[in-house]
Amino acid sequence: MDLILDVLRTFSKGGILMYPLLILGIVGFAIIIERFMSLSIAKLFPEKILEQVLIFLKKGELDEALKVAKREDTVSTRLVVFLIESFLKGRSSEDNLKLAADEIASVEIPKLEGLVNAIGAIASVAPILGFLGTVTGMIQVFEALALTGLGHPEILSKGISQALLTTAFGLSIAIPSLAAYWYFKSKISYIISELESLAIEIINLLLDIAREGRHNEF
Q1: Does residue 69 contact residue 39 with C-beta atoms inside 8 Å?
Q2: Cβ contact 45:194 at 8 Å
């Protein structure tokens, strides 16, 4: 209880800019947790589903492959569904299938990156906001000194300490946010690479089906 009260007292000393910093910290933390859960490789690439899809495609059973892929709504299964449906609609050439892959990628990749960019924005804004709090705090310190003179060093030390709180708080938000941002950017690059590999594999199987003319119609 005493620790909580000490934290609250210290927080209140930082001034009004501590509150927008607190909001940034809470929002950033929530986004980081959400992205950790959403960007799980096991969740994005359901292994059993994709294995069954590949088995059916190798048999030329497009309808069954499509049914299996639709059991899970993930970025990888949406890619598979879009490619198979494009193939069934007559886009069976290699160029058309690659174009279809690009189309679905242009929709899905921004979904992966959107909230991650918000983390990067928080990492950039938090230290600037903290520094602004320090600058405004120092202005208040010098205004107080102008009124009281240099005979009260405790006022100066207390004022500087309070002014620096916003910078410290801003950095405490920015540093983990920046680390999370680059971690997620790296993970998204890996996910995109895996999606590209999956798209190539699906396209090759569809081209084999087209060449051999062995796909089952609905």
Answers
A1: no
A2: yes
